[in-house]
Amino acid sequence: MPPTVEPDPGNAGEGSTAVDADVIVVGGGVIGTAIAWRAARDGRTVILIDPETDDKASLVAAGMLGPVSESVFGEQDLLNLNLLAISRFPSFNEELEDAAGHETGLRTEGTLAVAYDSGDLAALDRLTAFRHSIGLQAERLDARECRRREPFLSPATRGGVYAQGDLSVDNRRYLAALKKAAANAGVRTLKGHACEAGEGWVRAMTPGRQDLEARHVVIAAGHATSAIDGVPDGVRKAIRPVKGQILRLRHPKNIPPVLTHTVRAIVQGHDVYLVPRADGELVAGATQEERDDRDVTAGAVHDLLRDATTAVPAISELILAEASAGLRPGTSDNGPILGPAETERLIIAAGHFRNGILLSAATADAVTALLKGEKPNLAWAPFQPERFG
Amino acid sequence: MPPTVEPDPGNAGEGSTAVDADVIVVGGGVIGTAIAWRAARDGRTVILIDPETDDKASLVAAGMLGPVSESVFGEQDLLNLNLLAISRFPSFNEELEDAAGHETGLRTEGTLAVAYDSGDLAALDRLTAFRHSIGLQAERLDARECRRREPFLSPATRGGVYAQGDLSVDNRRYLAALKKAAANAGVRTLKGHACEAGEGWVRAMTPGRQDLEARHVVIAAGHATSAIDGVPDGVRKAIRPVKGQILRLRHPKNIPPVLTHTVRAIVQGHDVYLVPRADGELVAGATQEERDDRDVTAGAVHDLLRDATTAVPAISELILAEASAGLRPGTSDNGPILGPAETERLIIAAGHFRNGILLSAATADAVTALLKGEKPNLAWAPFQPERFG
Question: Which terminal Cβ of chain B has fewer Cβ within 10 Å, N or C?
Fold first, then answer.
């Protein structure tokens, strides 16, 4: 039920006869901000509605960009999309660094997946066979070679696989760069969140304004998308928060960086990833919990530290600088949701689950195509909102 | 080499002919602040030199007051002192709460020591035999009875011992109360730290003043006592920082307090203590490391969480609110150092190691006795500075 958007007498001088902007983007994480930046860069007037909280999933992420490791057997469509996304990422990131005037900490050393015991090695071998079956490079390494490349790996390491094409980025620097680039391109940010949206309009809790109109409204509100009235019910039901907890570790002055590559370790059946940053930070993650709170729990921190220090014992000596929790936007089929919701003027770009940063560039491309009336890359075809009825 | 204390022309109006105070206390932890409060309460003018940092050992402590559990076989003198201290604590604390106008969170449920495996049980039995041998109560409980008293203890708990007389206090509320009581009694606090001290004088880094004079100077600077010139060399060499890391856990809304008693668990040879607070916090500690940094490390947090969640699995569900590190003032014989240093006008009250809060009341009594020219309780006799030559 769209509200009647009438000129507010109190705001009469603010040009109430026209729409407020060409595009209103709801959500200030990497997805929403990337879309806002690119739309503004194309010459559109853009309003970004951003809650500006510090518990965004974009801020809790590790910034690991591994197209294969984040997809599983049978998710071929998602894998295709991730491969599109990783091929697009470097050039997008380069433009972003230029537009923002600072670096995002992109690292290109690749991922070393390692196995701790024989069961872990069997699991890793299955993943390698899968990579090979779809024509991807994945170099099998024996234990000695793993430890040659990463000398602080546990002596118990049984073997590993090196994936050359994987990237990582400092998620916080990346989001900060997107915000800077968006502001530089003229995006107007309103602090707040949307309650309801429809064909070219948004009802939002922002200072001074409640009802906003635009040619296009883009909902990129992560898991909170499910709380916005006017988003199709099927989409709202398909999105759920999936809690993730991560740790940020720092090196004391006398300890050199313990890792060079992103390391994904399988430790007695548990997965842990360890992402080194250019600034010496090491991110360890992540839990995956069907909960909607953001509490940092003793059990999760324990399990992450146990797995991290088992895989790389020297991590015991690092400083535990931060433990944090975020809510990823999971969907019922693990795929993102991108496309018009019943009307061309209301676009959904949500449900990116564990792949938000990886998919951000490709998502911005797809949404800017839709804004121009063009079709997004075909890899997006399986991920339209209609699939949820 | 004492400085020549001359009237500073810049401070000429500030009464430079007399001493600055009856007593100058160096150190704003529980020891120094308790001494300052009690000296002022006796009608003396008191200056407290306090670095006012938030990494004091007094702030990182758990506030567990267990006279026996903190002493070991063969440390009979220390045990006697701890028994004096615990008998004095409740009345001191009551006066303190009155003087400060707020509570310190004293808890009187006692300590339940529990053992996890058969080796742990053997260690616990040795401790119980020791308690009995010195005439202390210690009630041996079977596993069923342990879990009846603390239902969240691991089903693997093998048995335990209940010590009725143990207390605990919220160390942060306790220090805050001491500061309030000191201020109410007229203690003047100068932010800074002492560099050098002698017979009735201190050279300090405080705003505006460097040289201060008093009838008596009391050095209660914890491990930093070893950095103050003028303190006898033997004392300086006997004191060393012993790093301790602790965790502060909080209960999510839907979880009731997991513990009622202070629980000391022996878990596969590791000691962990768990101290519940009146406000729902649970403190878990502590590491004991021969290091002088205050870094919170991945390894220490891991080990504390491992032992805590092994002893009480429900702790996994608690919120990890804080991990912190402090430096306890250890001494070469584990005993505190209390008494005049060569001159009656320079008194040392330092080296309280793991027992600072427990000993704070008895220490204040002993120092105020010295200020009056009286002898402290005989239990202090073995702990004079001269024992370090």
Answer: N
